[in-house]
Amino acid sequence: MKNFETLLIHGGLSIDETTGAVNVPIYQTSTFKQDALGKTRGYEYSRTGNPTREALEKLIAELENGKYGFAFASGLAAITTVLSLFKSGDNIVISDNVYGGTYRLLNQVFNNFGITFSVVENGDYEKTITENKNTKAVLVESPANPLLSITDLKKVSEIAHKHGILSIVDNTFMTPYLQRPLELGADIVIHSATKYLGGHCDIVAGLVIVRDEELAEKIAFLQNSIGAILEPFDSFLLIRGIKTLAVRMDRIAENAQAVAEFLDKNDAVKKVYYPGLKTAQGHDIHSKQAKNGGGMISFELKENYDIEKFFSSLKLVMLAESLGGVESLVCHPASMTHASIPYNVRQELGITDGLIRLSVGIEKEEDIIEDLSQAIGKAAK
Ligand SMILES: Cc1ncc(COP(=O)(O)O)c(C=O)c1O
Question: What is 4-243's CATH number, 3.40.50.2000, 3.40.640.10, 3.50.50.60, 3.40.50.300?
Fold first, then answer.
């Protein structure tokens, strides 16, 4: 295997074989002429297959060290397609933090079709899996959105396989540059490629990667049947974004480590969640399964700070949904990304009304810290 940084540029179908173009062309077509009845040139209709999307799918499969990749119109479209592997009566065990939209999809959509879910109790996957005899999969985020809680992915996959069920990992927060769940035993990896893989806050996209041929056939069938595929232009933009993943992530992680240390030392800050801090929950496990702490930090200010004032005082860091772009973004999970989780469940999970989530960008580290510092100062009551 080539080095990962090189694969980002040369993996998949990096050039157009017909013309030699160094970028994969955008095949902006919905259909393909057939030479005779039943005689195609490999493509028939773009929902089923499109060369630009296929180049991206081959690339992400290589990057996650899988065999088969699938591209979708959003991260949630990818998750919806994967959850469609299950049927009424099946149960899914999820990590104690997941993206609010994933929770809503399970709680308010798949529940209506009889697919239930349980949140892991005290990190004990074995116990939670066996409590429901119809558990068919675990769905884990590590680090999880928004508290960056860590799950031992190798151990969870081993437990899942011991019980004959699937291990599914949402690797959005890490990307394959920092963590490769298939190598740790997972069966299915999911991404909201809207985030770090796209990297520029200019597309919404989702990806799924597997190694097993039978599973790949089922997902290909569902991708075509459900139809929530990624368009050719967005596939092109995603390939372009992926080329700079390593350089962006190196800078992002370096900045995030510095910002987390700054927050950790700041008297106004009650708690910092960042897996790169030695004191963080799961730091040792995370260090074994991932390259570094990544770019996401969550924190709480002490009671005598007004978080609305904090948000409105920021000048550089933008208050916005989403994460993983070159620009630093901040959000309020309780009213934004995780608002669809009922209040009492949020409290149980530790997603307090004072929690602030920060996606660190590639700006100059001192400028990010200066902006946070002045906004914290103005937020003092
Ligand atoms: C961890 C995680 N998974 C999935 C999603 C959903 O992805 P999308 O917004 O691309 O549908 C998000 C979105 O924030 C996320 O943070």
Answer: 3.40.640.10
Distance CA 372, CA 379 (A): 10
Please tell me the distance from the alpha carbon of residue 47 to that of residue 72, in angstroms, as a whole number.
10
Closest residue by Cα to residue 183 from 154, 151, 142, 143: 154
User: In the chain, which residues fall in CATH 3.90.1150.10?
Assistant: 245-379
Measured CA distances, 273 to 88, 173, 299, 342, 373 (Å): 37, 14, 6, 22, 17
pLDDT per residue as tens, the chain (381 positions): 589 999 999 998 878 888 999 999 999 999 999 999 999 999 999 999 999 999 999 999 999 999 999 999 999 999 999 999 999 999 999 999 899 999 999 999 999 999 999 999 999 999 999 999 999 999 999 999 999 999 999 999 999 999 999 999 999 999 999 999 999 999 999 999 999 999 999 999 999 999 999 999 999 999 999 999 999 999 999 999 999 999 999 999 999 999 999 999 999 999 999 999 999 999 999 999 999 999 999 999 999 999 999 999 999 999 999 999 999 999 999 999 999 999 999 998 899 999 999 999 999 999 999 999 999 999 999
Ligand 1: which of 171, 189, 192 to mutate, most ligand atoms within 8 Å of CB?
Answer: 192
Residues forming CATH 3.40.640.10 domain(s) in the chain: 4-243
Does the pTM exceed 0.90?
A: yes
Please name the CATH architecture into which domain 245-379 falls. Alpha-Beta Complex (3.90)
Ligand 1 and 74: CB distance under 6 A:
yes
Determine whether the shortest distance from the Cβ of 333 to ligand 1 is under 6 A: no
